[in-house]
Amino acid sequence: MEGNARVGRVSSAADSAAPATVLVYSHRSEVRDAVRTAVGRRPAADVGPLTWVECTTGDDVIAAVDAGGIDLCILDGEAQPTGGLAVSRQLEQEVTDRPAVCLLIARQADRWLAHWSRADATLPLPVDPLIAPGVVADLLRARVQHPAASW
Fold first, then answer.
1. What is the pLDDT along the chain (151 residues), one digit of tens a residue?
2. Fold of 20-145
């Protein structure tokens, strides 16, 4: 080969996308399934692939976040017995470098509660597969750009 010829693979935006771990919390398996299905394994070409962690109790969420490695929590505001709003507020108060938080809300009127709980974003229930990937991708991009931001 001549001096300046280069052999190698052309990289794309998808190749440089960092994997992310997303926790989804709800006591209802159909809600967890709907979130995973709507968002998918790769919500955008420059985000993912995603690894999903499922939690069925608020205590499981706290333990998973304390263990580390979670980039985003998607919490069901209607979860029982501990709602995602309370879990979000607890994470804000107790975890120094908490992951980004997105709350699933059943009523738009509950957005003020999501704000009170310090959530970074909301998604309405039922989860819309046209909206959810964009919200998740934006939150994960922000996390990469500002890893120790105000979350």
1. 444 433 333 334 444 578 999 999 999 999 999 999 999 999 999 998 999 999 999 999 999 999 999 999 999 999 999 999 999 999 999 999 999 999 999 998 889 999 999 999 999 999 999 999 999 999 999 987 765 544 3
2. Rossmann fold (3.40.50)
Looking at residue 53, its amino acid is V
Task: Point out which residues pair with 130 in neighbouring strands.
Answer: none
Say if residues 54 and 61 touch (Cβ distance below 8 Å): no
- Which residue blocks in the chain are alpha helix, DSSP H? 29-39, 58-67, 84-94, 111-116, 132-145
Q: What length is written for the chain?
A: 151
Identity at 58, one-letter amino acid code: G
Q: Where are the domains of the chain?
A: 20-145
Burial category of 113 from C-beta neighbours within 10 Å (exposed 0-12, middle 13-18, buried 19 and up): buried
Q: What does R_g of the chain's alpha carbons equal in angstroms? A: 17
Closest CA relative to residue 90, chosen from 79, 101, 80:
101
Paired strand residues for 72: 22, 100
CA distance 29 to 24: 10
